[in-house]
Each structure stands twice: as structure tokens, then as C-alpha cells.
Amino acid sequence: xxxxxxxxxxxxxxxxxxxxxxxxxxxxxxxxxxxxxxxxxxxxxxxxxxxxxxxxxxxxxxxxxxxxxxxxxxxxxxxxxxxxxxxxxxxxxxxxxxxxxxxxxxxxxxxxxxxxxxxxxxxxxxxxxxxxxxxxxxxxxxxxxxxxxxxxxxxxxxxxxxxxxxxxxxxxxxxxxxxxxxxxxxxxxxxxxxxxxxxxxxxxxxxxxxxxxxxxxxxxxxxxxxxxxxxxxxxxxxxxxxxxxxxxxxxxxxxxxxxxxxxxxxxxxxxxxxxxxxxxxxxxxxxxxxxx
Length: 292
What we know:
Oligomer: single chain
Distance between the termini: 40 Å
Helix content: 40-55%
């Protein structure tokens, strides 16, 4: 009898990345994992899917940062507009790109919160016109894409929904979250993970735990040695670091994604915590990653 290696629950990133590669080869597509809230890291803070937060299909990436307005249009359609649709529909849907290709967008939730989007593409659509600005070499790439087909989309949606739930599962395991939290410390951590990106405070935590505000305050200080607003800030800034390392999201979008309503307030707190503003932090992290 020969056993097959499973997935390390404490560091699942490598196995999950291999599973993504297998799906891409089987369907002849590229998969993008958009971390909506900066949560996709293991217990050591390592991103689960480095390099997968941007559409890397040759048709999508070619010219994006060289042609005028291409990056802006891609960001507006595939991040802002697609995420808005996903937040409302909360089920897989077909999204048509301004470049004349289609993709499947699969939202993954946890407790009603959109935590990630899986994009699968691109697909060629019959009868869809390609903009005149698309050069011949990209038109050739498009002609080799699989044809957009409803049955294919349904099959792929089912697989990606299951895969997304698997990501959720291993994300919880890597953070020592098994099932329903039992202790008060686990319940407080769960609340932070599920709601840190929302306008919450100690009062909301107390209601969620069915406790008085003073009792909730006492539990937080007893288990963590610091007040709730400090825990909340630490969670938000940790997520911001993850997004800064793994995405090209504008700083304003990063701030909003992790729970800051004011970009300037976010910049000031980030610089106070890490000794440099978020833009400089991102540049240094990118240089360090390239050197490694």
C-alpha cells in the first residue's frame, strides 16, 4: 500500500498552489485569487497565493502597464465592478472584459462576508468584437483560448466553489481554528477575523458575545493583555501588509479593504507602526522579493 502526502494544515500554501496549477492545466485557463480582505496568509504570515492576485494570462497582462489607460480599465472592471457584483449576487457569474474575452468569477464567503474571488479565464466568445486597440499578436492569443460555453462554466463553477471552500478550511486550520471556537480567546479572534474590515468596536464585540461591554473589555485584556481597539488595529494593519506585499491595489483601496474609512488616517497609523508609509513599505517589499 502506498500513501499519498496530504496537505500540511499549518502551512497549506504549497499544496494549494499545486492544486491550482492542476486545475489550470486541465481546463486550459489561468486562475486568479483576489484576496478581498487581506486574510489569505498562514499562521506565520506567509501569503497562501503569492503572485496570484493579478490576472497573469498573457492576453490580460500584455500591454496592461504600457498602453495608456489599460491598467485603469482592467482594475475598474475586474476588481471594482466585478467585486461589486459578487458582493450583491454571492454566486458565480460570467464577466465580460473590455478586451473582448469572458471570465468566470466565483465569490467565496465566510459567515456572509466576501473573503475572496476566484477568476477563471480567459474565454473566447463568438460574435464578440475585439477593440481596435488590441494588436495582432494578442488577437492570436485570443484565438487559442477555449470557447465560452455554459456547460463548461457550470462544471468549472462547481469545482472552484469546492476549491474555495477548501481554501477556507485550510485557512482556519492554519490559524488553529477548528470548528466552532470554544474558549473566549478563540471567540474574540473569530470576531476579529470575520469583522475587522467592518466599522466595529468593543460594543459590537460585546453584543456578538452576549456580554456586557465591561465584561467583554475585561476578557480582551485578560486573554491578550491589551485593549480591543489595539487588537483591532493590529489585525487591520497585518491584513494591509499582506495586500501591500501581494497586490497592486491602490493605497485607498487597501485602506478600505481592511477597515479604514480614511486613507490619510491609515497612512499615518501604518507609518507609526512600521516606520515607513505604506507606499514605501510596498516598494521595499517588492525589491526584497525580487532579490530573493
